[in-house]
Design a protein that fits this description.
This protein is mainly α. The protein has a single domain (3-350), classed as Rhopdopsin 7-helix transmembrane proteins (Up-down Bundle), CATH 1.20.1070.10. The protein has helices at residues 27-33, 36-66, 73-90, 92-100, 109-142, 144-150, 153-170, 172-175, 203-238, 246-281, 288-310, 314-324, 345-349, and strands spanning 3-5, 10-12, 180-183, 188-191. The protein has a two-stranded antiparallel sheet. Strands 3-4 form a two-stranded antiparallel sheet. Helix 5 (109-142) runs antiparallel to helix 7. It is globular.
């Protein structure tokens, strides 16, 4: 995430505007580049995210692709989400090294471009796919008839292709320009923290670009996801109780709430800080280190996703246990009664209990 620099100005990814000094980088930017929040705290968060997220998402991706034969819409979404989270996590080691070195990129312009595009594209895909999963669950519970028509494997695959295509298309300015910039005042080379002039053409286009990205990959998915999970929870509470499924129903509602809360905690600070940083930077006050810190918080969702969307799934747990049988790491796989939110449509369609038995 960076700032656009010209002869007299530069704009960050959240449209940070500054007045340039003699060598092209103003004092506020120099202070941002040496702030301990981004050179110590942030790389530690990224490192934790990499250590936890990479093996979990790699395992989930392999099992989802190879061990689950029936590729339902839920499984297709899960495969794409695990791939997005995996790509995001493998882009973190170079980010960690870069930040620990005080924003000094030593891997060349090509590596900077690849890392930046992978980092941004995978994060944006993860956000949109998570939002699509929430919409699928909403349709499955609140509109089950429409769900049978719309939530087919073919349509789901098409949605995932469109998400990946949109995220890649948004990275076009990053692919066409060298994102490294030499900062002589600090004797270092930045990678996307200070974007060279001309990347977006003009200041107004930079404002439009980053504003559109914030809305499309931040504010809108957040609102849609929360609305969908609130609707799912309300529908589950309104529907008649089903035989012997009270515990599973409560579990499903807890999982819906967990998914929503995790998404809010990880992405809401970033959305808010982007808008605040824009407003304050116009007045000469920079919130860039705090905005960067929220990106670290974003990375934690990749570590949470495997537990919220895969390991908590009945079908995936059974597949996971079967895969471990040759290593004698688990007992005989038995079908349990816990369901993920994607399976809760069964609760609204199952036979209701006779009131005399309650």
């Amino acid at each position: 995430m960076g700032a656009l620099i010209g002869n007299t100005s530069k704009v960050s990814e959240v449209s940070r505007m500054t007045i340039s000094v003699a060598h092209g980088v103003d004092n506020a930017t120099l202070k941002d580049l040496v702030n301990p929040l981004t050179t110590v705290v942030l790389p530690v968060i990224y490192l934790v995210g990499f250590v936890v997220s990479t093996p979990c998402n790699l395992l989930c991706f392999i099992l989802l692709c190879t061990c689950i034969k029936r590729k339902t819409s839920t499984i297709i979404f899960a495969i794409n989400l695990s791939l997005a989270d995996l790509l995001y996590s493998v882009s973190l080691p170079l980010q960690v090294s870069y930040l620990f070195l005080g924003h000094d990129w030593r891997f060349g312009a090509v590596a900077c471009g690849i890392t930046t595009v992978t980092f941004r594209c995978s994060m944006q895909c993860s956000i949109l796919i998570t939002c699509a999963i929430a919409m699928e669950r909403y349709l499955g519970v609140v509109h089950p008839i429409k769900s049978r028509h719309w939530c087919t494997p073919w349509r789901t695959g098409l949605v995932c292709l469109l998400i990946w295509g949109l995220a890649l298309a948004v990275q076009t300015p990053m692919m066409r320009h060298d994102l490294t910039l030499r900062v002589e005042e600090l004797n270092l080379t930045t990678c996307f923290d200070v974007i060279p002039r001309g990347t977006f053409g003009s200041r107004s286009l930079a404002y439009f670009y980053f504003g559109a990205v914030t809305l499309l990959f931040g504010a809108m998915p957040l609102v849609i996801l929360v609305a969908c999970y609130v609707a799912v929870t309300l529908e589950l509470r309104r529907s008649p109780p089903t035989c012997n499924e009270g515990q599973s129903r409560r579990y499903a509602m807890v999982m819906c709430a967990t998914a929503a809360v995790c998404f809010i905690l990880c992405y809401l600070p970033n959305v808010v800080l982007q808008f605040l940083h824009l407003a304050y930077r116009a007045s000469g006050i920079s919130l860039y280190p705090y905005y960067k810190l929220t990106l670290g918080i974003n990375s934690l969702i990749c570590s949470v996703d495997p537990f919220v969307y895969y390991l908590a799934s009945q079908e995936f747990r059974n597949t996971f246990q079967k895969a471990l049988r040759p290593f004698h790491c688990c007992s005989q796989c038995k079908r349990d009664t816990l369901y993920t939110p994607s399976e809760v449509v069964n609760f609204t369609n199952a036979p209701t209990c006779n009131s005399s038995k309650l």
